[in-house]
Design goal:
This protein is an all-alpha fold. The protein has 51 helices and 6 strands. It has a two-stranded antiparallel ribbon. The longest helix has 28 residues, at 127-154. It starts with a helix and ends in a 6-residue tail after the last helix. Residues 1-19, 100-112, 161-165, 184-191, 301-311 and 921-1024 have low confidence and may be disordered.
């Protein structure tokens, strides 16, 4: 901009004399102090046109009238310069205006010079006129902007003061004196024109492009349109950049007047109609003048605001492809910036309405996407950002699921009709346009969704496709397809608790009237079931058959096979409802898989019988259990079509046994007795009932944690045996449970601190070892021999003499360990009596006789050689019994012990006789001693004559150790861990009666008899 200081020097001002006062006055006036009067008066006093014009160009104010006055005065002061410059080139201009064919040219007039060159020479010679012409162009441009500013201000958009209006209306809406005039005034008061947001001073000097972009972002669309029309020469190349400033959320109808339009005839963009303020440009704005001024130094410092060349320029008309590309990019910006699919769709629709090509497909996509975004139910807590790229990359099946992801059973049929079916129609049409028609595409995608949808949704779809509905109203129109879909959907479902929904689906299926062929129906049914069973059974290649796989299986089936399959489905649904009723549901495919698997059917029937009395099903009466039995028997029979139920491979006896087992497993033994006695449906013989009760009792027993049969599972095991009729097996099992409880009462431990459990007792191979553990765990248990014997009987050894003998041996051993010799002697005497009876009853070669004798002689030998046992006579009797029962190879050791004991007995007798009677008694004593000594001597002499081979075991130095080892080997089947207890209090108590005939029989005679028997065996004599 030219400053006033540069227009005239100080000498020029001094020459003007008093005229210098207006100059000073002008420079002292601020912009706010300028008025129309002082501007007109002051500038009229200034004689210099250049100074006055420069003063006007230097001032930019916000008052329209003042600014208009300034511009008009300034432009008027430049008229002389324009006139003079035109006169300088008048000859050249006259030549240019001559008609075509004239003999004179511009070169003839000016000697070969052009208008711009002539003007350049003139401006070089007259710099003041050059500056005036330059300032004139600037002021003219500002005047145009001023006029535009005034026009825009008059057409400012009207905004409602919404919040103020709502508050005021709400405040007075209940006013009884209010009338329509008042309400109208309130509404009119709420409407107001917004002041132009850009001040005049900025509007006149700022870049028009930036002003247009700012107004577009503020939604002053009419203002932008006015700018483009009034200043088309400047803003036309920047029209697309200005459009990019419009906010993405603005509907295209709100700024359609500035959107690009299309001329179909020319296949180019339709240019905006220009409405410049001046029909023709001024001389100072011509290209010749502007070219000449560029090279004049004095005029190069001023000029109009230039064009911003850094922006993308499109000076020429856009082609159809360019317009299509711009609309598509605009859509991407809208979706990425705001996510407003409806605005993007409206933009594309506007472009398509203008005839712009290649927008139909993206319009289809946006239309379908807008349905997804706006017409489907969206959960309030789910934020899902949809973009055109995401939509385009989705598979059609995923789009269908997205349409219906939030559908309910009540709305799914309508959602499919208004959302999915139009989308499928578009896909089919698009495939036809692309030359790859696929008529099955809509059905295929819809069927895929039906097979993957929840059963509640699926049921609603089938209800909207009933064969009884008009074809036009049905979602699925083909009856066979409905049957195939239902079969695939139900047999492919894993649901266990939606049987009413499955029944609803079945009720929607068609019923075909197909003639029945009695001969072939059964074969067709078997073939259908077998093939279905093989198809749904998991394998290594196909772990689980999906609903889509099943649809492939059902696809080629004819209508007759489909009808049979629906009959099978009916039976399976009824069976499934029964199983679900008793808390043992199974998926429908299970009925196919178990069709030929009797083990699987038996396992499920067992579950049904046992789960029925659980916490989920409280069966408290006989009628409830009879209902269960009735349902179980129903599943074993065949229906009207001859198809067996879920337990078709089981007999009625199998089912009744499983039922009784399940009833007993609940512990309701009173109901079990009642059902067995009075029910006509449970027909089992006594042996079957006994077997089942024993099995259930043992199951309770094995699961028992405590050995007390008065409570817990062991009590249930005991009480369960009261259900059947009493028999030997029942008595034996009850006695075993009583024995278990008795063992537990003796505090027997399996491990330190852990009591023995019932299952450990049952799994003990040699139950006599339990007797040993009882004796070892309780120091006084041996004193209760009858209790221990009763425990032995109840452990299963009631008629087993060998077990009794071993029990006596363990009792005697325990008594011997605690040095209770009288009780040990008594127990051994009873044991000898048992063995003697056994030997008299059975042959000596019997294994039982051998085993019992082995135990007995070892026990006799152990006590007979016990040095702390002081009853010599009884010890001799025990050793004599040992000699009678032992095997021949043990005679040597036992005789050695017997000889020592006999010698001790003789010495004791001698001592007693000598001290008691020194007379006749002494003589008698000597005679007996002689006889005894003679007998003993005789025995020794006879033994010397026979040389018995000494076996390795007899060569041991300690015969007592040998006997102990022999006893252990015999009783190896039960461990002896008897700890030494306290000394028995009745150590010196009464002694048991003699095992022999009495004192009348001489001990020497008995020993001689035994010796002769053994020697006879050695020399081969017959054994008695």
């Amino acid at each position: 901009m030219i400053s006033l200081e540069n227009v005239f020097s100080e000498s020029d001002r001094s020459e003007s004399g008093m005229a210098s006062d207006p100059y000073t006055y002008w420079t002292t006036l601020s912009d706010n102090e300028l008025t129309v009067d002082n501007v007109t008066h002051t500038l009229s006093l200034i004689q210099s046109d250049l100074w006055a014009t420069a003063a006007v160009a230097d001032r930019v104010v916000n008052d329209v009238e003042v600014q208009q006055t300034l511009l008009e005065l300034g432009i008027g002061r430049t008229d002389g310069a324009v006139k003079r410059s035109r006169e300088a080139t008048s000859s050249l201009l006259a030549v240019q205006e001559q008609p075509t064919g004239s003999s004179k040219t511009s070169e003839d007039v000016a000697g070969g010079g052009s208008v711009s060159d002539t003007l350049h020479a003139y401006f070089e010679a007259s710099p003041e006129d050059a500056q005036l012409c330059n300032l004139r162009a600037t002021l003219l441009h500002r005047l145009d902007r001023l006029n535009t500013f005034v026009e825009i201000s008059k057409s400012a958009p009207i905004f409602n003061s919404q919040y103020d209006l709502e508050d005021e209306v709400e405040e007075w809406e209940d006013d009884p004196w209010a009338d329509e005039t008042t309400n109208t005034s309130i509404v009119e008061k709420g409407k107001s024109s917004e002041p132009f947001p850009i001040p005049l001073s900025s509007f006149l000097v700022e870049d028009l492009y930036l002003i247009s972009c700012q107004l577009a972002s503020w939604q002053w669309i009419e203002a932008v349109k006015t700018l483009q029309a009034r200043h088309q020469l400047i803003l036309w190349p920047l029209r697309l950049a200005i459009l990019d400033s419009v906010p993405e959320h603005i509907h295209p109808s709100d700024f359609r007047e500035i959107l690009p339009t299309f001329d179909v005839s020319s296949n180019l963009e339709l240019e905006l109609t220009a409405r410049p303020w001046r029909a023709e440009g001024d001389w100072s704005e011509s290209s010749d003048v502007q070219t000449a001024l560029k090279n004049v130094p004095s005029a190069s410092t001023t000029g109009r605001p230039g064009l911003v060349l850094s922006h993308g320029l499109h000076p020429s008309l856009l082609t159809a492809d360019d317009l299509s590309g711009w609309y598509k990019s605009r859509v991407d910006k809208i979706i990425n910036a705001s996510g407003l699919i409806d605005i993007a769709l409206a933009t594309i629709q506007h472009g398509a309405s203008q005839g712009i090509p290649d927008l139909d497909e993206i319009g289809e996509e946006l239309s379908l996407l807008s349905r997804l975004v706006y017409d489907t139910f969206q959960a309030p807590d789910v934020a899902d950002d949809w973009t055109l790229h995401r939509w385009s990359s989705m598979e059609p099946s995923a789009v269908v699921r997205a349409y219906l992801v939030n559908s309910t059973p009540e709305s799914v049929s309508k959602d499919i009709s208004r959302l999915v079916l139009p989308y499928l129609f578009v896909l089919e049409s698009r495939a036809e346009r692309e030359g790859t028609p696929d008529p099955e595409l809509p059905n295929r995608l819809l069927y895929e969704y039906v097979l993957s949808a929840p059963l509640q949704i699926t049921a609603a779809i089938f209800e909207a496709s009933k064969p009884t509905l008009p074809t036009s109203q049905r979602l699925i129109k083909d009856d066979q397809d409905i049957a195939r879909l239902a079969l695939a959907c139900l047999y492919g479902s894993d649901s266990l608790d939606e049987w009413p929904t499955m029944s609803r689906i079945f009720e929607c299926l068609p019923a075909w009237d197909i003639p029945r062929d009695v001969d072939n129906d059964e074969d067709v049914m078997d073939t259908t079931i077998s093939s279905l069973s093989a198809f749904v059974t998991p394998s290594t290649d196909q772990p689980q058959c999906t609903a889509l796989d099943l649809l492939v299986f059902f696809k080629p089936l004819p209508i007759a096979s489909l009808s049979r399959a629906l009959d099978i489905l009916d039976v399976h649904l009824e069976s499934g409802e029964i199983l679900s009723r008793w808390s043992v549901p199974a998926p429908l495919r299970w009925f196919l898989q178990s069709n030929t698997d009797i083990k699987e059917q038996r396992a499920w029937a067992n579950r049904m019988a046992r789960r029925a009395g659980g916490s989920d099903d409280q069966l408290n009466s006989k009628e409830d259990w009879e209902w269960l039995l009735e349902d179980m028997l129903k599943l074993t029979g065949k229906g009207d079509i001859g198809l067996p139920g879920a337990f078709g491979l089981l007999t009625k006896d199998d089912v009744m046994q499983l039922f009784l087992s399940g009833l007993l497993s609940t512990g309701r033994f009173d109901i079990a007795k009642d059902v067995l006695c009075s029910s006509e449906k449970l027909t089992l013989d006594a042996s079957q009932v006994e077997d089942i009760c024993l099995e259930c009792s043992r199951e309770f027993y094995d699961n028992a944690q405590s050995g007390n049969h008065k409570f817990g599972d062991l009590k249930l095991a005991y009480d369960c045996l009261d259900v059947p009729q009493l028999s030997d097996r029942i008595v034996q099992e009850k006695e075993f449970i009583e024995a278990t409880s008795r063992i537990s009462s003796f505090n027997v431990f399996s491990r330190p601190g852990i009591p023995i459990s019932p299952i450990e007792i049952r799994l003990t191979r040699d139950r006599l070892s339990l007797i040993s553990r009882v004796l070892s765990s309780n120091s006084d248990a041996y004193k209760h021999s009858e209790v221990i014997l009763d425990l032995t009987y109840k452990l299963g050894y009631r008629d087993d003499v060998v077990a009794e003998v071993k029990t006596f041996a363990m009792l005697a051993e325990t008594a011997l360990q605690v040095e209770d010799f009288p009780r040990a002697s008594e127990l051994i005497e009873r044991m000898v009596e048992k063995v003697s009876k056994l030997r008299n009853t059975l042959s000596t070669e019997d294994i039982r006789v051998t085993e019992a004798s082995e135990v007995c002689w070892v026990a006799c030998f152990q006590l007979g050689r016990q040095p702390e046992f002081e009853d010599v006579e009884k010890k001799l009797s025990l050793l004599g019994q040992a000699l009678e029962l032992c095997p021949p190879e043990k005679l040597h050791d036992i005789l050695s012990a017997w000889n020592r004991m006999a010698k001790k007995d003789i010495d004791c007798r001698k001592e007693r006789l000598s001290s008691a009677n020194k007379g006749i008694a002494a003589s008698a004593s000597r005679e007996r001693t002689f006889i005894a000594g003679d007998v003993a001597s005789s025995l020794r002499n006879r033994l010397r004559e026979f040389h018995m081979p000494s076996p390795p075991l007899l060569s041991t130095p300690d015969a007592a150790a040998l006997a102990s080892r022999t006893f252990r080997s015999v009783t190896a089947n039960f461990p002896f861990s008897v700890g030494r207890g306290s000394q028995a209090s009745d150590r010196d108590g009464s002694r048991a009666s003699s095992l022999f005939k009495g004192d009348r029989e001489d001990v020497s005679t008995q020993a001689t008899r035994v010796f002769n028997k053994g020697i006879g065996w050695l020399i081969g004599a017959d054994d008695e």
